[in-house]
Amino acid sequence: MKETSTTFVTVAKVGEIPDGGIKIVRVGDQELAIFHVAGEYHAIADVCTHDGGPLAEGILDGHVIECPRHGARFDVRTGAVLSPPAVAPVPKYEVKVMGDEIQVAWP
Length: 107
Ligand code: FES
Description:
Layout: E1 7-13, E2 22-27, E3 30-37, E4 40-45, E5 59-61, E6 64-66, E7 73-75, E8 81-83, E9 92-93, E10 95-98, E11 101-106
Antiparallel strand pairs: 1-11, 2-3, 3-4, 4-9, 5-6, 6-7, 7-8, 10-11
The protein binds FE2/S2 (inorganic) cluster.
FE2/S2 (inorganic) cluster binds at residues 48, 50-53, 67, 69-72, 85-86.
């Protein structure tokens, strides 16, 4: 079977997102939330799996983002649900820093 290679797309410059900050970016037809926490970057879909709430407009506390719509909480490192009403994880995307560019894996 042929391996598919992953493409990385530049979504921001290092220094553009302050620590504890969030940037919303559009890659393809998907809005992603890029989080900067403790020197690392994380990317998840900017859509709550409960009812489509805009996660990047929620409150970020450490690695936890709280949906502004009904308060579900997710781990920005994995997309995992930490508290209801959401039950399904949010898609997570690999992030790497190349030089001064923050890049997200885009299949
Ligand atoms: S839409 Fe996010 S908790 Fe309901």
